[in-house]
Amino acid sequence: MAELSDRRSPRRKIISALKTWAATPHGISTVLLAKMALKMAVASVISLVIAQGLRWNYPLYAAIAAIIVMSSTHGSTLSLGIQRMIGTVIGGISGAIFAVALGSNFWSLGISVFLTIFLTSYWKFNEAAKLAGYVSALVILSHSEVAWLYAWGRCLETFLGIVVALLVNNFIFPASAGKELRRCLSQTLTDLEQFYALVVDSAFTGNYDRPHVDALKIKIIGSLQKGRSLWKEVKQGQTNEPPEKQINEAWEFLIRRIWEHTLTMEHTVLARQQDIFWQILSRQITQLAQETQSAMLVLATAVKSGKSDISLSGIEVALTKATEQLNQLQEMKQQDYPMDELLRFFTFFYTMEEVGRKLQRMADMLS
Q1: How far apart are CA 146 and CA 323, in angstroms?
Q2: In whole angstroms, what is the distance from residue 108 CA to residue 137 CA?
Q3: From first to last of its 367 residues, what are the pLDDT tens digits of the chain?
Q4: 296 exposed, middle or buried (CB, 10 Å; 0-12, 13-18, 19+)?
Q5: What is the pTM of this model?
Q6: Of 19, 44, 135, 234, whose CB neighbour count within 10 A is largest?
Q7: How many alpha carbons lie under 13 Å from residue 262 in its C-beta half-sphere?
Q8: CA pair distance 153, 112, nearest whole angstrom
Q9: Three-state SS for 292?
Q10: Alpha-carbon separation of residue 170 from 163, 173, 186 (angstroms)
């Protein structure tokens, strides 16, 4: 028995270590990537097998469509699938028309690609425009002899890939829009906290890590764009969360306002001219900055886990204290401080205050 226990002990340690790692941000991200890769692999294989079984001429395109349209949720996969289908249909029809009318030459290619991309974009199918141009070019240059048959085949193969991707997404590691939205909001708040911290550090020390800030901005913008599509899915009912458990819609507005406020703070800091002046006043708002950063991380954890009973009382205390201290600085007007720097500093502070207030509202809405 002792030997058996000793043999199991390393296995338990490994399993325990894997569980611990899987709970870390890096572990969660890696697991999500693995799940997505697996769903794409399964969908591509199924699409290929079905297309080959039906003896279609180009089964590869069914597998490609299944890979490209696969996304984290049913709604986003459907949206990508519709765009791809529209692009394939428009490109196939346009390519077939010009291949029959003008033949396979550069005039036919140029006119078809131009009209296809222009009209697809004009009709607001922006994500389908390039694909439509590509399909029309493919029809004209490589399949002009059987243009209509090839266009029809491409539409069938694309449709098959989209359907398989939707089915796989629903049955293998299905993720609701509500769960994905919570994860997206959590990541956005985490990145905003880092951006906010860098801006505040620049205000206090004069140092500005532009490469790091620019990288964070790109991540935040991407998260906000992803969040917008997920909000649409949730509002359309594409989530398995009951209404009372769903995130308040006002969060969409508030998180964007926090992003805009932080950009305003950044602009104010970069426009200042005297670092020493800001350093003199920095002690008045240090606690507020720390409490605000802490609140962002608390909210990031809470929204991801679905926790609702959270309190941000520290922000209220810090706001009150900072306001009282800054109100005592009225005599600064009588000192030799440049008025424009004074105005910049108080703009910075009042924007910080707005960020804190909006975080409080977000916490109240969770409960």
Answers
A1: 76
A2: 9
A3: 445 455 556 777 677 766 666 556 666 678 778 888 999 999 999 999 999 999 998 899 999 999 998 887 777 788 888 899 999 999 999 999 999 888 888 899 999 999 999 999 999 888 899 999 999 999 998 887 888 998 998 999 999 999 999 899 888 877 777 888 888 999 999 999 999 999 999 888 888 889 999 999 999 999 999 888 888 888 776 666 666 678 888 999 999 999 999 999 999 988 877 667 677 777 778 888 999 999 999 999 998 888 878 888 888 888 888 888 777 665 555 456 677 777 888 888 899 999 999 999 999 888 6
A4: buried
A5: 0.72
A6: 135
A7: 31
A8: 19
A9: helix
A10: 11, 7, 24
Q: Which two three-digit tokens encode residue 116?
A: 């296809």
Per-residue tokens: 202: 């620049």
Whose structure tokens read 């079984």?
53
What's the chain's Rg over C-alpha atoms? 28
Whether the CB-CB separation of 296 and 363 falls below 8 Å is answered with no
CATH of 177-366, one of 1.20.58, 1.10.3470, 2.30.29, 1.10.1760: 1.20.58
- Tokens 């009709």 belong to 123
Q: Are 129 and 87 in contact (CB under 8 A)?
A: yes
Place of tokens 């991707």: 165
The DSSP call for residue 54 is: T
Contact 346, 326 (CB under 8 A): yes
Phi, psi of 52, rounded to the nearest 5 degrees: -65, -40
Domain ranges of the chain: 41-171, 177-366
What is the rounded distance in angstroms from the CA atom of residue 172 to the CA atom of residue 38?
9
Cβ atoms of residues 133 and 113 within 8 Å: yes
Q: How far apart are CA 247 and CA 244, in angstroms?
A: 8
Beta carbons of 161 and 47 less than 8 angstroms apart: yes
Tokens found for residue 224: 């906000």
- Our measurement of the distance from residue 159's CA atom to the centroid of its chain's CA atoms, rounded to an integer in Å, reads 27
